[in-house]
Amino acid sequence: MTAAVELSGVSYRYPGTAAGVQNIELTIAAGELVVCIGPSGCGKTTLLRLIAGFLRPDAGRVLLNGNDVTHADVRKRECGVVFQSYTLFPQMRAWENVAYPLRVRNVELGQRRKRALQMLGVVGLADLSERLPSSLSGGQQQRVALARALIFEPRALLLDEPLSALDAATRLSMREEIRRVQKAQDIAALLITHDQDEALSLADRIFVLREGRLVQNGTPHAIYDRPADSFVAQFVGQANLLDGVTTGPDSVETPIGRIAMRPHGYERGAAIRLLVRPERVEPLWATTAASDVDTNIFLVRVLRDAFFGATRQVELAIGDGILKLQTPMRGAIERVRIPPEAVQLLPTS
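RESULT FIELD:
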């Protein structure tokens, strides 16, 4: 099946700098939402601009629905783009803003008004069609921008940090709205974000970029549960990274003490790196009987205990190391347990 969006060996460098992207391979199927994340300056927005046609690659090809558009201009690519700033025309009513792409395509007034009202209905704003942007909330303005990006049935929907200017509650509702509309339209979508929760909750697949290179591509579960390296482990979620030396086929000596794990396949004395997610660390209370658990139990000293309502994030001193723990449980923590199955191996380089 032909991908709706494809980047094949795409590289681009901004003139006079080392910034850009290198040898990117990316595909997005119709109806799929891919989220691209990474540190500031890693190339996320550059990828979006290369797909939209605002930039031309130095090497490689850009294809939309199997057609090579590498050298096509922005308009011929027919991509719907939503930016962080809504860029609505302040003097135009909501329906006129939505209809603007049809206006520049010389669609007759009555037809473009009809289609604009239909699209406003899709994003839940049918009753606000006559409003000016100044009388709309931030979330409503973003819905207008989304409707405008979709009205001309684009080949792809490209979203560049579309929710970052919204408050937390509106961001959450707009996440669901974007997902609903994108799936209903069965359109390929690329979302650029710095919000990990947004990425994990919205994406069919996540692309992680670092210094212009793709370092991992996979489902949210795969990215979080099986990160490719320490960078991904630390960038996506919280991580305890422990360097250690193997002491047996299923044990490692670390700064917090000896940790039992599943068989690792390394020879005794090998240097390896372990990942333990904070939510996998189990707090043990004074009432926990010693016979209930007997593996990887450590006495702890609490360094920091931050309360977030539904959860608490605790920093613990253990031996010569520090361990982060995340739990919904209340109460004093005296010991913790690390289940052997919660320990993952990561590349040391």
